[in-house]
Design goal:
By secondary structure, this protein is of the alpha/beta class. It has 10 helices and 15 strands. The strands form 3 sheets. Strands 2-1-3-4-5 form a 5-stranded parallel β-sheet, with helices on both faces.
Length: 376
């Protein structure tokens, strides 16, 4: 049975003096390291991208492009920016050493070099790099587990088809601070909730499971829409960190009475598109949740008919164009909702999100659009 031998680290050696290259190659290869070499900065940068070495030993004083210049260019290139660089130089003054470390070097060895010193420093920085990579992988694995857990608690349209909703959800990071939920109060009464926790990532995402539990607790027939929001607020005040808050919008739809009650907590306005195409933007002035001992909420009650559609969303949808005012983003969203009202709800939701984000180079926030159709 053939044993598996782990591939040894690869070292790129850059020096314009052949004897120095030969010495370093001999010392490193004798200890099992793989080496590649270059005699100038330009060749070093090309080899760095091609070979992806685990570490670079870089001479400072070279004709043309100095080692400091080479290091700066390597660090500015995403393909080579994470490769650790140890400088080798006859310049052993403090200023030169500080310069090398400031531009991205991890260490500085004065010439003439000694094989044992080079080996010791190379091994230290390779171990540091290996430990860092292991930590990054562990962090990614944890975030992936958290992302899967967060996704698992988000109700999907196929899980509750009687609620007649569709959703577009795109978190900025592995886990998002935006959250939505759909609560079946009874056969003809549903609650639709959209929230945006300040901040992104794990700290915001951890709160989503708590919010979901609170909606189940305070979303039943014993509680009015305002009671539901106040229940969430009371607990969030105890859980949120300093200067952290939660904006939210809760739409309570009673299909028997054709009544839609909307409660806002500092959230962007709901958009209602009638079956006729008439658009209504439901503006309300209210406080975010989790900030004040006595939260100010506003409620709006609307009469709706089968075929009407309403949209709850996070501010990433209306603030996608850098520098554009929020009002322009809302107008763009309303126009898209009206334009695609004749399409099936899921298709319309995807098209509306695409139109709202049209021209955006890269989103800078979580993106969430929850669309609901009033069914008969």
């Amino acid at each position: 049975m053939r044993s598996h031998v782990k591939q040894s680290p690869k070292i790129l050696i850059v020096d314009d003096t052949p004897t120095n290259l030969e010495l370093l190659e001999t010392v490193l290869r004798a200890e099992g390291f793989r080496t590649v070499s270059a005699t100038d900065g330009s060749s070093a940068r090309a080899l760095g991208k091609l070979e992806q070495p685990d570490l670079i030993l870089l001479d400072v004083m070279m004709p043309g492009e100095s080692g400091f210049e080479t290091c700066s260019r390597l660090k500015s290139d995403p393909a080579t920016s994470n490769i650790p660089i140890i400088f080798l130089s006859a310049l052993d003054d403090v200023k030169s050493k500080v310069t090398g470390l400031k531009i991205g070097g991890v260490d500085y060895i004065s010439k003439p070099v000694h094989g044992e010193e080079v080996l010791a420093r190379v091994r230290v920085h390779l171990r540091i790099g290996e430990n860092n990579r292991a930590l990054v992988q562990e962090h990614r694995a944890r975030l992936e587990s958290l992302r899967e857990a967060q996704q698992a608690i988000l109700v999907r349209p196929e899980d509750c088809p009687e609620a007649s909703f569709a959703v577009y959800y795109r978190p900025l990071e592995e886990t998002g601070g935006d959250f939505y939920d759909v609560v079946a109060v009874d056969a003809d009464v549903f609650g639709y909730f959209v929230a945006d926790v300040s901040g992104h990532g794990a700290s915001a995402a951890f709160l989503t499971s708590a919010i979901k539990a609170l909606l189940r607790q305070y979303g039943g027939p014993l509680y009015s829409p305002e009671d539901t929001m106040r229940g969430v607020d009371a607990v969030m005040r105890q859980m949120l960190g300093e200067e952290q808050y939660l904006t939210a919008c809760y739409a309570h739809l009673n299909r028997r009475t054709r009544k839609l009650s909307v409660v806002s907590a500092g959230h962007p306005p709901m958009v209602l598109i009638r079956g006729s195409g008439q658009a209504t933007v439901v503006e309300m002035n209210s406080d975010p949740l989790g900030m004040f001992s006595s939260v100010v909420l506003q409620r709006t009650d609307l009469r709706v008919s089968p075929g009407d559609r309403f949209y709850l969303y996070s501010d990433g949808i209306i603030e996608s164009t850098p520098g554009a005012p929020r009002k322009a983003g809302i107008e763009k969203l309303v126009a898209a909702c009206g334009e695609f009202r004749g399409l099936p709800l899921a298709t319309a939701t995807s098209n509306i999100a695409a139109r709202a984000l049209d021209g955006t180079p890269a989103p800078s926030d979580d993106l969430l659009l929850l669309a609901v159709e009033v069914s008969a």
